[in-house]
Amino acid sequence: MKTAKKGITILLKTGILIAAALPQTQSNAAGSQPNAQFGPSNPFYAPSTLPLQAPPFDKIKDSDYQPAIEAGMAQQREEVRAIAENPDPPTFENTLVALEKSGQLFNRVNLVFNAVTGANLSPELEKLQEIEAPKLAAHRDAIFLDSKLFHRVESIYNQRESLKLDPESSRLVEYYYRAFVHAGANLSETEKAELKKLNEEESTLSAAFSNKLLAATKAAAYVTTDKNALAGLSDARLKGAAQAAKDRKVEGFVIPLQNTTQQPDLASLSQRATRQTIFENSWNRAERSGPNDTRDTVARMAQLRAQKAKLLGFPSYAAWKLQDQMAKTPDAAVKFMDALVPGSTAKAVSEGKDIQALMDAQKGGFTLQPWDWDFYAQQVRKAKYDLDEDQIKPYFELSSVLENGVFYAANQLYGITFKERHDIPVYHPDVRVFDVFDADGTQIALWYCDYFKRDNKNGGAWMDVFVNQSKLLGTLPVVYNVANFTKPAAGQPALLGFREVTTMFHEFGHGLHGMFANTMYPVLSGSQVARDFVEFPSQFNENWASYPAVFSHYARHYKTGAAMPAELVAKVKKAAKFNGGYALREVVAAAELDMQWHTLPADAPLEKVDDFEIQALKSKNLFLSTVPPRYRSSYFAHIWQDEYAAGYYAYLWAEMLDHAAFRWFDEHGGMTRANGDRFRQMILSRGNTEELGKMYSGWMGGEPSIEPMLKFRGLVPEESGK
Length: 722
Ligand SMILES: [Zn+2]
Description:
The chain contains 29 helices and seven strands. It is mostly helical. It has a five-stranded mixed sheet with strand order 3-4-5-7-6. Residues 5, 8-10, 506, 510, 535, 538 line the site of zinc ion.
């Protein structure tokens, strides 16, 4: 399954323009004098002198962020004011290039701040995040709602045909014009003021949601002193649970929650009561009526977003949000998702029947519930494929997967090589850093990975950058991947399941999109593309995890170095498709839920979250108690905390792109340097420099078809049960 950035995968940064005018009168909520504290002693004051301007984590203290963020905003406000009030007539250079050069201090600190608050949060930074969130929103508005600035951009846009710009520069003109209109630059002053208020409230609620959810997830961990309750867990997992208890200074064992509805340990826990408790802890984590209940927050956010869309002239938030996506309209996205419902439902129902039959054969005497699914599915899988996770995990040792799998595939396709270095400071001892070299030996990037779960890390897995690539600014990409793999006890190897292996390939696919970036303008660089395209490079890269030449290279027993026996390989591959009905349907359910929240009209009442959720699923034939959505509304971080609002369908959409692309590779000789280089040149290096549908069809030589995806998923029409 796919993983989530801060929730899934990638937080799209519009970093370059997020900063701007903080009203001079606004007091600093922390009571400090930001600019007074900011000087050369602040590690963000000047570009880092480390290789590729890597963040100097050895010098950065929590107290450095606020003064740097505030000074960065003030500085960009001045830069933007100078552009808007330039007495010379607007030109591409004096307006758009100048905007691209603005805000460098702000970006420097903000990208690091985002990384650390996502992966290594401290109470001080958590507070700061809440303080800064509405200010950042206000700053973005101050730029995109600045009418003088908009008129300059509009004037350049209107004469773009006659400017004879190169294609990337033309794209930049369109990008800015659309971004201004999208943000409401065409509104009257009264409407703009109203929009600013809505934006500020939304960002405050979003930050509150994020912090409530983190606390709720932590609090809903399963805690027990009864070892019998954990029967079925492997020794390694038991040790991990004991360590987690120690870390929290409690007796016994702790099983922290992952961000999805289903929890990995439910596949092995044999005590039904334990499974039920863990599942219910997960399902109700943010619905416990206390300070960490998120329901009021999300209901209000949905309402606010609908009101915002109306103000901007759209029938719904989704309609507004999807304008610049590949799908373009909610209807197109919904039509695509609807096509996945019957096939995935039929498949999930038949999987459920197999499970019930097995439970009955064991004289279980109960009806399948969601907390039983993974436990018995494992047994069905074992009966069908004679495979259990503990048998295969010794072949998936993290470092081997990384170096002999993820890196190896990238080397075979693109010729790049990696060298670990230990002299670059990191924000936590678990973080590793690698130099990335092109085939000719020149350095193209730095890449960091931070793979193990911590209580102060957001759930899921994601990629982002510390430094954006830009030829204009002379910067190379500094990219990182974060995940939440279970940390082994001291001295033990980190052994992964195949799903986690796939997550590593996935996030690294985003990483390549960042590392291969080769564009002039920072805002068009790397993975800053539409949401329904951004998951394409990552999901495409997952394909290499099971590609025979790659798999046999990394899947080696951590003790003996022996390759995985052929029959086990065959089983792993077959088993990877097992439970595919459940896996697809839980994602489709979450995606339709997202779309329903975001197609509400502005005059809809404040919804009761649980009722709305049930109704939304029922209306799409997606209500099935044994197959709950992958995320429930109250802990759906992608849509309330990250930028996937009205965009969760993008994972599925991008999957269509990825299967069609992999078929192209298949038909053109598979894993070759020629295919890799062409893909890098025409897609991975190009960021958002061309309309993405055109970029894709230009590379592919045609439009993407849904057929390879349906086939891969076993949902081809004749099998879908119509
Ligand atoms: Zn992703």
